[in-house]
Structures are given as structure tokens and as C-alpha cells.
Amino acid sequence: MRSCERRATSVARVLLALALSGAAAAFRDQTALNHNLDLVKNVPVLPLGLHRRLRQQQHDLDDDGARTAVADPTTQLVFDASNAMKDDYETRYFDQRVSHDLDVPASPVNATFKQRYWFDAQYYKPGGPVILLDGGETDASERMPFLRQGILQILAQATGGIGVIFEHRYYGESFPVTNLSTDSLRFLTTMQSVRDSAHFAENIKFPGLEHYNLTSRDAPWLYYGGSYGGAKAAFARSLFPKTWWGAIASSAVTTAIEDYWEYYEPIRKNGPTECIKLLESHSALIDKLLGFNNDFITSSLKNLFGLGNVTSDVDFVNALTIPLSTWQARNWDREVGSTAFAEFCDSIVTNTTPSEPAEHLLSAVQDAWPSNPGQAFAKFASYGAYIKANVSTLCPDGATQDECFGSDVYDGFSLEDASWRSWSYQVCTEWGYFIGAPSDADKPSIVSRLLTTEHTSKLCRLAFEPGKRNSVPSRPNVTAINQWGSFDLEYDRLAFIDGAEDPWIYATPHSPHARKRRDTNKKPFKLIKGGVHHWDENGLVDPEREPKEIRKIHREEVEFVKQWVKEWQDRGKWHTGPWR
Ligand SMILES: *[C@@H]1O[C@H](CO)[C@@H](O)[C@H](O)[C@H]1NC(C)=O
Ligand SMILES: *[C@@H]1O[C@H](CO)[C@@H](O)[C@H](O)[C@H]1NC(C)=O
Ligand SMILES: *[C@@H]1O[C@H](CO)[C@@H](O)[C@H](O)[C@H]1NC(C)=O
Ligand SMILES: *[C@@H]1O[C@H](CO)[C@@H](O)[C@H](O)[C@H]1NC(C)=O
Ligand SMILES: *[C@@H]1O[C@H](CO)[C@@H](O)[C@H](O)[C@H]1NC(C)=O
Ligand SMILES: *[C@@H]1O[C@H](CO)[C@@H](O)[C@H](O)[C@H]1NC(C)=O
User: Fold this and answer.
1) Cα separations (Å) of 43 from 111, 252, 264, 297?
2) Would you list the DSSP string of 102-136?
3) What residue's CA is closest to ligand 1, atom 5?
4) Nearest-CA residue for atom 3 of ligand 6
5) What pTM value is reported for the model?
6) Pocket residues for ligand 2 (CB within 6 Å)?
7) What is the pLDDT along the chain (580 residues), one digit of tens a residue?
8) Burial code of 394-413, b = ≥16 C-beta within 10 A, e = fewer?
9) 110: CA distance to ligand 1 center in Å?
10) How many CB atoms lie within 10 A of CB 527?
11) What CA–CA distances, in Å, run from 114 to 166, 168, 206?
């Protein structure tokens, strides 16, 4: 199996999950957190073959109860919550409609499936809100730590609220179908999922709390989501305002974008200057060398990077993007964040003595460095050495490099394949987010220009064989998403929180392409300085140890949410019955 670059998306995400479960045992007592799970959603890397192999290794390790040994460069280190916390929070199941869309009826028509959730009512006081955290495109059990620390716990404690983690259909264990064939994926749309949350809020009876009126008719419901889940929070508040009293949309990608080359822009603009300059010039050089179409030069180049057996040139350059996804895996919390990006940059700005085959390459590229070819080549060789040591080694013994880094095979549609397949389907049908080089040759790029949308969307054509009742369109219909407001989406009691250095910022209302807005308690609009992907979601058990920017955003979130809840209580009817 191989994979495809952008499928990497899901793949990388999966890895995350991997990392999650792996570290679990060792960190059972830590308050976990994980977090950027989602985003990794579209991290532009891990091919399917590699994803599967790392996942398998992880499972094997889990069976041994050992800490993860798989160096997955793209994920934040996360701790497995499901083991650590399953004793604390019972898994619950809600009878959800298989379809909310009459045009795509379930069979039988009103069929339901079990949708997973967890809740914590320890802080609850009558009149307090119910705060739902969207599991996004991940196994939601990974987010259980947020019941104990981080945004859900913070808001529940501050408002006398109930924290709920709600799993997305087609992820984790919440499946309305028994396989993931193209036909079976027909109930997977963003709108179906936004409606799941609304139907839940309108109908849930929390076990043990039946004596309270806690549906959205009688209690203020607040929606929190990060990344794709953040976009859902924003859509939920604006499309179902009677169900959702308020929402916090963190790193909310409210704009679907087919060619999302701008993923790399925040990295290019905020990464260490010398490192970024080298990545730009190395990428251009690699394209030039591959452009000679000379077998000897090409294989010397691939060998320098430890990827000599990767047949396709595009698969080769795609593998070089793997370290870049570690930018997104950064977190202010060392327990969950990755420091791999800094290590990567540190190592590529140093000089490495070129090895034998590199000398041959040197002569092929003399004209690229007229002034000091030896010195320039030493930097290039460092890049090669880093990839050789840290990327090519991800491919386990027994697998060929084409099996790990290739992008031609996307097979498998059992529920087990949800880790790569569900989000890939959403990307191919509605979201896009194909991540590669800018198609405009005048724009600088830190990745190879062989990474075109044509290539990065290959998965969509290979993974989803047309079925009888459903097929994947030739291009994602981003209008299905962007009709809900895109960069302009706003609503009372809908907060947008973003990170200034988030690779996803170009898809959020804080995009440089979006209009400027004011930040008010009614429509909070906040940017975390130096922040990456939904950095407000996580928190420490001891908030005093959080960095200043994080304490600040949490304080502000508590302030506006308290005000929103007070507005609801001031309507004065909550204790006497339905308020609408
Ligand atoms: C499905 O549910 C709707 C709404 O509850 C109801 O009106 C309809 O009769 C049901 N249809 C079937 C076939 O059970
Ligand atoms: C997938 O599930 C559907 C519904 O259960 C079933 O009809 C179909 O045969 C399955 N597809 C495959 C290829 O197993
Ligand atoms: C719940 O609402 C009903 C009316 O809708 C009301 O009679 C009842 O007193 C409420 N219960 C509580 C605990 O507020
Ligand atoms: C590359 O392929 C050759 C020939 O099949 C094999 O001997 C070698 O071990 C492979 N190297 C890597 C790193 O996969
Ligand atoms: C990269 O590989 C080197 C050499 O094996 C190792 O020391 C380093 O920790 C690796 N870095 C990362 C981020 O995995
Ligand atoms: C794309 O989605 C929009 C909004 O749902 C819909 O009106 C339009 O027909 C869709 N376009 C295609 C080509 O399916």
C-alpha cells in the first residue's frame, strides 16, 4: 500500500492517534492532553503505507504495554486518555439518526446508531450551561483529558456547567454503517454531523441527571470545537441559533479551500530565517536536479536522502515534507507538543561533510553555487542526512520504500480504515485542503513544485470507487461549506480564537484574506500571539504554570462565557420552565 501525499492528511492524524495510545501506559497518571489531533488532519504527509505500518507497530507496542517507540515526527506527543480515564468517565451512547437528510434516507427510514459521548457533571449547578466539545475528525476518546483539564474543565468549573465530549459520526466507535465503501460513506457530510450535535442537544437525557431539564430547550448549550470541529461550532451556532446559546470556534477552518498551498505560509513566514531560506533554495535545487531526468543524478540525489528505493520522484519529494508537519505539532505544553521542528532546523543549518555519492552530485550542481559550492553543498548534505536519519527510518524493516512512501494504493474500507478514510472522504467531497507548492511560480516555496494539486488530490481518484448510490465528485464541492459564511461568518455569542502561527490560519476568519474585525464580548475575535493550532483547548491542572498568553486566553474565554450564561439566566425563565 502506499499512499498519497495528502492523504497524508488522514494518515498523519492517525499517527497522532497512535502516539496517543502508545504513550498511554507510561503516562497513565498524567493528566493527559493531546490535542492537536485534529489538525493533523490535513498535515500534508504520511503516505498510507507508512501510516498503516506505524499504526501496526503502535498496536503491537500497546499489546506489550510499552511506551511508544515509533518516532512519529508529525504528531504532538499525546497521552492516551482512554486507558487512563475510562474508570473516571463512563462511555455513554446516544441513539442518533443515521440520516437527517430526507434526500439521503437511512434504511429503514428512521434507523439509528449508537453515538459515543462522555460527560462530567461534577461542577453542575442548576442554571449552568451544557458545554459540548466536538470530537472532530478523530477518535473522541483522545479528548477525554479535557474533562479534567483544559478548556472544558475550565469553563465547566467557572460556570457551574456540564462538560460533554461528543464523538463525530464515522470516527472512533460511532459508525452508522458496517463498512466504509463509497456507498456506505453517503451519510458522512459536515451538515449531517452538525445536525447530530443539534439532535443530541435537543434530546439528550443524561444518565443520573434525569431530574434536571438539560436539553437545549431548557438549558444554555455552548459549543466548543477546534480546527474542523471549530468550523462545526461556528456553523452550529449560526445555523441552529435556537439550539446553541453560544459557541467558541478555535482555529476554525470556516473556509474550505481546494488548493491549500498557503498551509506552508505561516511556516515560511515565522520559521527561523536561515532554515526557511535553505528550504526554499534546497527545494528549488531538488526540482532542478530531478528536472535533468538523468537516472544517475536522480538516484544520487535520492540516495543522499536515504530514499534511493523510492521509485517516483513525486513520492520522493513528498517524503521530504514530513518534517514540516511538525510545525503544527508544536504546543506550549511540553508534555504534548513536539520540538521536532526546531531540531530539524537546527540540524539543517549546520554543515555536514558530504559523503562519497554526494561528491558526484556536487559536480552536477556546480552552477547553482558559483561562489562557494563546497559550503553550500555541505548544507544540502545536512538536509539529506536529516531525512536519511529521521524520515527514511520511519519505514520499518520488511517493507520496501515504495510500500511506505508510495502514493498509488488506497485500499481497504473496513471500519478499521476510518483512521485515514473518513477524513479523506470529507476532504475529497467538501473540504479540499490539498497541500503542496503554490502553482504561481513567482511565489516562494519550501516544498518541491512537483507537489501540485493534481498530485496531492490523487487519493480522491484512487480510494473511492464509485458505488451504486454514491460517488466522490471529480473535485470537492467547497461551496457546500463556504455557503455558510466562510471568512465572513459571524454571529452573536460566537467566538473565534486563532493562533498567529497556525498553518491553518489562512482558512480561518483571521486569514490575511479576511476582513478585519473588532473583538467584543458579544463577538469575541482573538489571536493568540505565537500560537499554533487551537492552543486554548489544552490546559494544565495547575493553571499558574501555563504560559502568560495561555492564561490570558483562558481568562478571556471564562469572562465572555460567564457573561453569555448570565444573559441566559437573566432571561429569568430558566427555573420555571421552557424559555423559548
Ligand atoms: C420517522 O420518524 C418521523 C418523525 O419522528 C415520523 O413522522 C415518521 O412516521 C417515521 N417514519 C417511519 C417510516 O417510521
Ligand atoms: C458494506 O455494507 C453494506 C451495508 O451493510 C453492505 O450492503 C455491503 O455489501 C458492504 N460492502 C461490502 C463491499 O462489503
Ligand atoms: C422541567 O420543566 C418542566 C416543564 O417543562 C417543569 O414542570 C419542571 O418543573 C422542570 N424541572 C426542573 C427540575 O426544573
Ligand atoms: C533498496 O533496494 C535494494 C535492492 O532491492 C535493497 O537491497 C536495499 O536494502 C533497499 N534499501 C532500502 C533502504 O530499502
Ligand atoms: C533525528 O535523527 C537523529 C540521529 O538519529 C536523532 O539524534 C534525532 O533525535 C532525530 N530527531 C528527531 C526530531 O527525531
Ligand atoms: C455544491 O454545493 C452547493 C451547496 O450545497 C449546491 O447548491 C451545488 O449544487 C453543489 N454543486 C455541485 C456541483 O454538486
Assistant:
1) 35, 16, 10, 30
2) TTS--SSTT-EEEEEEEEE-TT--TT--EEEEE-T
3) 110
4) 480
5) 0.89
6) 178-179, 181, 184
7) 223 323 333 333 323 322 222 222 222 222 222 333 333 344 445 788 888 887 777 667 665 544 333 334 444 434 444 445 556 899 999 999 999 999 999 999 999 999 999 999 999 999 999 999 999 998 999 888 889 889 999 999 999 999 999 999 999 999 999 999 999 999 999 999 999 999 999 999 999 999 999 999 999 999 999 999 999 999 999 999 999 999 999 999 999 999 999 999 999 999 999 999 999 999 999 999 999 999 999 999 999 999 999 999 999 999 999 999 888 888 888 888 888 899 999 999 988 776 666 677 777 777 777 777 778 888 899 999 999 999 999 998 999 999 999 998 899 999 999 989 999 999 999 999 999 999 999 999 999 999 999 999 999 999 999 999 999 999 999 999 999 999 999 999 999 999 999 999 999 999 999 999 999 999 999 999 999 989 999 998 888 999 999 999 999 999 999 999 999 999 865 555 444 4
8) bbeeeeebbbbbbbbbbeeb
9) 6
10) 17
11) 12, 11, 15
Catalytic annotation on 367?
A: no
For 278, residues 6+ apart whose C-beta sits below 8 A from its C-beta are 348, 349, 379, 383
